[in-house]
Amino acid sequence: MRELALGETLVVDRIRHAFGWALAVPVLWVSTLVYPVMGLAYVLALGVVDTVGHVARRWRAHRGT
Q: What is the pTM of this model?
């Protein structure tokens, strides 16, 4: 097996590099979509927790304890 000259690359290395770039684009699109969705989920979760706490306080005040 001969050694590669400086600057010479194998076809497998080129394919691996191209495959990595091809996967990077969908990953960026997914992350672009997921970030706002996670923010919305966070806001909704805080709203649910706040509502549950509000209902629990009103229930306790209603029971008189």
A: 0.52
